């Protein structure tokens, strides 16, 4: 017999029932009248300083105020986010251990042969947090000054240029894989244990380029340590009005944005999920949160738990097809 959480439809039905009947017919844990009664741990599966870490820490003060308990960010990097995600998947479904991740969570099943969790089965989506384009950057001392020059070098000597990423399966990994598929250029992947060390390597010249979320690289671009060649979204960034989009730079079929979200372990009671969702929506609407995320290049996005779950499941399927089409073999 399958465990209850293995059937998403049945899980959602049970959660809806729990929300309707509250504490009158179910244990107090399901009605969650006293939740939260102790600090909540938010696992960020990347090193401090990366975009997911920035987003989570921007929300922490508002979350703590709204929920009435301290929110502790726990950075557990490794394996492209898989280490931290697995920790949450195997945690008790009581609302005290949550996962902050980005669209990269949906890549795992196509990238790893032995993924220790199932994204559709083992996590309960809580809420969408925001979205941001990425920026194609090189070291500021690099002779490359345009996307065209970069692609010409990569095609002249395939694999000679190294690109940094936050790890296998990270957003910064798949962004370049997609670029290779679209352009035919070839780069060599150098994965790190998080976005911050990957950015540091690019600034130091250990790697030649990367495609990283704007929140992680904007400060270094403004400090003159990185050179922005293009923005991966549909439009230019207000903070970098002189930097073209990839389409404007000549790569017509390339658009890449990263969304961020919050998850709980599967089978977390619906009342707890709803309370977390409501707190998250309220936190995102606070002016201080919006302004802080905007400074980091992240645009606030709202979605119901059902809408967010639909997005997650659709992206699992979409990226599985893209990764397979790119010829990327699961590791």
Summarize the structure.
The chain has 331 residues and is of the alpha/beta class.
Question: How many beta-strand elements?
Answer: 10
Largest sheet: 8 strands, mixed
Number of helices: 13
Distance between the termini: 30 Å
Helix content: 40-55%
CATH architecture of the largest domain: 3-Layer(aba) Sandwich
Draw up the topology in text.
Elements: H1 8-21, H2 28-31, E1 40-44, H3 51-67, E2 71-75, H4 82-89, E3 97-102, H5 108-111, H6 119-122, E4 123-139, H7 147-156, E5 162-165, H8 171-183, E6 188-191, H9 195-204, E7 209-213, H10 214-222, E8 226-231, E9 257-265, H11 270-285, H12 287-295, E10 299-300, H13 305-325
Parallel strand pairs: 1-2, 1-3, 5-6
Antiparallel strand pairs: 3-9, 4-7, 4-8, 4-9, 4-10
Helix pairs in contact: 3-11
Outline the structure in words.
Helix 3 crosses helix 11 (270-285). The chain folds into two domains: 4-132 and 258-325, Bordetella uptake gene, domain 1 (D-Maltodextrin-Binding Protein, domain 2); 133-231, Periplasmic binding protein-like II (D-Maltodextrin-Binding Protein, domain 2). Helices cover 42% and strands 19% of the residues. The strands form two sheets. Strands 1, 2, 3, 4, 7, 8, 9 and 10 form an eight-stranded mixed sheet that branches. Strands 5-6 form a two-stranded parallel sheet. The protein has helices at 8-21, 28-31, 51-67, 82-89, 108-111, 119-122, 147-156, 171-183, 195-204, 214-222, 270-285, 287-295, 305-325; strands at 40-44, 71-75, 97-102, 123-139, 162-165, 188-191, 209-213, 226-231, 257-265, 299-300. It is α/β, with parallel strands linked by helices and 331 residues long. The chain has 13 helices and ten strands. The longest helix has 21 residues, at 305-325. Helix 3 links the parallel strand 1 and strand 2. InterPro entries: BUG (IPR005064), Bug_dom1 (IPR042100), TAT_signal (IPR006311). This is Tripartite-type tricarboxylate transporter receptor subunit TctC. Residues 1-31 form the signal peptide. Keywords: Receptor, Signal. Pfam families: TctC.
């Amino acid at each position: 017999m399958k465990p209850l959480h293995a059937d998403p439809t049945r899980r959602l039905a049970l959660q809806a029932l729990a929300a309707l009947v509250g504490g009158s017919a179910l244990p107090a844990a399901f009605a969650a009248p006293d939740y939260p009664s102790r600090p909540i741990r938010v696992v960020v599966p990347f090193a401090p300083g990366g975009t997911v870490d920035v987003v989570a820490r921007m929300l922490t003060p508002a979350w703590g105020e709204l929920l009435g308990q301290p929110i502790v960010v726990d950075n557990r990097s490794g394996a492209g986010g898989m280490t931290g995600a697995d920790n949450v998947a195997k945690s008790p479904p009581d609302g005290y251990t949550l996962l902050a991740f980005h669209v990269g969570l949906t890549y795992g099943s196509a990238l790893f042969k032995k993924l220790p969790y199932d994204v559709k089965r083992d996590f309960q989506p809580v809420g969408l947090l925001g979205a941001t384009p990425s920026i194609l950057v090189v070291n500021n001392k690099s002779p490359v000054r345009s996307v065209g020059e970069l692609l010409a070098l990569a095609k002249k000597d395939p694999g000679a240029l190294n690109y940094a990423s936050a790890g296998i399966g990270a957003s910064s990994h798949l962004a370049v894989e997609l670029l290779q598929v679209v352009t035919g250029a070839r780069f060599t992947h150098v994965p790190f244990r998080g976005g911050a060390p990957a950015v540091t390597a690019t600034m130091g010249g250990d790697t030649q380029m990367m495609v990283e979320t704007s929140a992680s690289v904007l400060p270094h671009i403004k400090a003159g340590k990185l050179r922005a060649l293009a923005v991966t979204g549909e439009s230019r960034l207000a903070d970098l009005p002189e930097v073209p989009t990839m389409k404007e730079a000549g790569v017509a079929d390339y658009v890449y944005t990263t969304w961020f979200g919050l998850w709980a372990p599967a089978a977390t009671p619906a009342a707890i999920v709803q309370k977390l969702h409501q707190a998250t929506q309220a936190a995102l609407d606070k002016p201080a949160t919006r302004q802080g995320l905007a400074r980091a290049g992240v645009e606030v996005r709202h979605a119901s738990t059902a809408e967010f779950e639909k997005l997650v499941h659709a992206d699992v399927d979409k990226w599985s097809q893209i990764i397979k089409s790119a010829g990327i073999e699961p590791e």
